[in-house]
Amino acid sequence: MTLYAELHRHLGGSVVPRILWRYFQRQNPEQAGRFPEYPGFEEFYTRPRNTLDEYLELHTLVESVQTEETLPYFIYRLIRGAHIFENLAYLELRYTPYLRTSERLSQSERIDQMTQIVEIVGKASQVAEYPMVTSQILCMHSRLPYEVNKAIVDLAAQSQEYVCGVDLAGGDAHYAERLDEFIGLYQYARSLGLKTTGHLYETPDGCYPELLPYLMRIGHGIQIPLKHPELLSQLQQQGQCLEVCPTTYLKTGTLQDIRQLKVVFDRCFEAGVDIAIGTDNAGLHNVRLQFEYENLLTQDVINFKQLQACQDAAFRHAFAWPHTQDPTSLLTGLLKTEPKKTLAGKSQ
Ligand SMILES: [Zn+2]
Questions:
Q1: Short-list 21, 70, 17, 87, CA closest to 287
Q2: What is the pLDDT of residues 303-322, one digit of tens each?
Q3: 291 CA to middle of ligand 1, Å?
Q4: DSSP letter assigned to residue 299
Q5: How many Å is the Cα radius of gyration of the chain?
Q6: For the whole model, what pTM was predicted?
Q7: 51 CA distance to ligand 1 centroid (A)?
Q8: What residues have their beta carbon closer than 5 A to ion ligand 1?
Q9: In this structure, which topology does domain 4-319 adopt according to CATH?
Q10: Looking at the DSSP assignment, which residues form a beta bridge with residue 66?
């Protein structure tokens, strides 16, 4: 039996459409009126978008309802689903805490409120009946001011009980004009001993080699093997891992066909660069982790051996997995049954 590690999942995009629709029916008359029937909502919520920016716009719909009061409601359902349907033993959940604070507050009050949000998410992720190792990655955001992003890094460093690293999100085309600022923030994060990942080389507009040295993992990074394979040996030497989330590229219009990922996997395997497969926005896509795996197999993007290599890589590159072995090898001994011995001399 295989248990999985998910390294790339956004809190905003992790709410499955039916849970969100039902929440609107119960709590939000405006959205409930907009989508009186579930199928219409599912169609709106999960349909592919033309660009990454258009796709990210949808996150604001979920962010607006994920508040201090409602976060436990959504996170409980997320952990329940991940335990029962996805066999997750390990989950890193990422989000921008500032975007869950109250818009009525001033910037500095919102920065203060982020501490509570991290605690609420941390406590809600520990569900006794659905055991799983969970940790948070706090995302800096390309559309937030420097002071807020720096406060996010500081908060990550102060909240090691709940937080295992930092990320940069918000659309990789928007980093260009503030590149030095983001380099400085990553340098600062590393100086505090934080683990780092970042949404980078996701689209052709998001290729910033200047940021690569500061990252331990690369969020997506598919444009490296696709367009800049000369960088792969550098990644291999640094022990950096790509977090590849197949469905996303079809939903954002970055790729037209999942089979285009074959080059990504082939070149990474050849160069010795690890890949962990993630869902990114499992709810928004209405796609669970196993489907990502199965789809890559049935479309001949990877074979079973390569899939297992990616599943192992996920545990090796997990920022907060506390064990030296993955859970499958721990379980195998328990589940193995000895073949029954036949009695000597008895005719078969
Ligand atoms: Zn992402």
A1: 17
A2: 999 999 999 999 999 999 99
A3: 17
A4: T
A5: 21
A6: 0.91
A7: 14
A8: 280
A9: TIM Barrel (3.20.20)
A10: none
Predicted confidence at residue 109, as pLDDT, reads: 98
In angstroms, the CA 255 to CA 65 distance is 30
Chain centroid offset of residue 15 CA: 13
Nearest Cα residue to 254 out of 208, 297, 291, 220:
220
How far is CA 289 from its chain centroid? 11
Give residue-wise pLDDT tens across range 81-105.
999 999 999 999 999 999 999 999 9
- pLDDT value for 66: 86
| 219 Cα: distance to centroid of ligand 1 (angstroms) | 6
Q: Residue 281 and residue 169: Cα distance in Å, rounded?
A: 13
Per-domain boundaries in the chain: 4-319
Q: How far is the CA of 174 from the centre of ligand 1 (A)?
A: 15
Measured in angstroms, how far is the CA atom of residue 339 from the centroid of ligand 1? 46
Distance 334 CA to ligand 1 centre (A): 36
Contact 220, 244 (CB under 8 A): yes
Q: Sign (positive/negative) of CA torsion 102, 105, 107, 112?
A: negative
State which residues of the chain have pLDDT below 50.
347-348
pLDDT recorded at residue 56: 80
- Spatial distance between the Cα atoms of 265 and 275, rounded to a whole number of angstroms: 8
